[in-house]
Amino acid sequence: MRLKIEHRTTYRYASPVTLQAHRLVLTPRDDAELATLSRSLRCEPDADIRWTADVFGNPIATATFADETDTLTIVNEVEIEHRAPEWPVFAIDPGAHGYPFAYTLDDIVDLGALAQPDWLTSGADAVGAWARGFVLGPRTDTLSLLKDMNGGMLDSVAYRVRDEEGTQSPAETLKLGSGSCRDIAALFIEVVRHLGMGARAVSGYLVDPDLPVDDAGSTHAWAQVYLPGAGWITFDPTHRRVGSGHLVPVAFARFNRQIMPVTGDYLGGPDAFLSMEVSVRIRPI
User: Where is the Transglutaminase-like domain (predicted)?
Assistant: First the structure.
């Protein structure tokens, strides 16, 4: 399936402001399931755009601006070939079929913080106790356990649209009983880490070809879990799906906050900011 994605972000200010450098994480990552055919990134007013890669290998664009403005528009357009199967089959190493299992020493070292719960955040013990509630016996099937957690998040946490910036802590999401896609994904990741497995946050786009063109896509956040043999397996607890059949990954990181699509500041009055609008259009080519 070939897709064209247009992601447009517009900021409006009450009076002209001086824009600081903006960090843009908008370009899909190529892998065996996705190939970028073309890409275009532009800003209004014009910006000098410099490309780098972060510690996770994500392509990062840094936009710097020369002129003051009362409107900033960032438009990212890409054409991709999406090859992810609807019903993937995972070749998990036989030694990891049953939970608990042991990573190799190399995997332990390389996963590092991706396999460690965030003990510095309040409520970590409560999240760990909730995580262990998914384990029904001393020995269970690893993939079934992960699927149960992926499908069971919404039994305790309701999805809600949340316009506030940032991500709730997993403990806060559990206490409130609701959260956005990034909050639910963050909870799933932390639960997986409390059970001793490596997990990472993913940001990108949700694709639903059954919807009208104007509603066929949106920004989205989900998770991946590392299992020996199979590698990184995609879990989307917000939609109870496994695999990347409806997802276009843009960036991977330890936490969602490291891969927000657009981050940047401005110099201006305390009431200068008026609004932000985001639109994502995805259509087949």
Answer: 173-239
Distance CA 208, CA 245 (A): 10
Domain co-membership, 242 together with 113: yes
- CATH assignment at residue 235: 3.10.620.30
Residues 266 and 174 in one domain: no
Q: Using alpha carbons, select from 18, 77, 73, 78 the residue that is nearest to residue 46.
A: 73
CA gap 192, 104 in Å, rounded: 18
- Residues 137-157 have pLDDT tens digits of 889 999 999 999 999 999 999
Q: Are residues 244 and 106 in the same domain?
A: yes
pLDDT in tens, 96-137: 999 999 999 999 999 999 999 998 888 899 999 999 999 988
Question: pTM for this structure?
Answer: 0.93
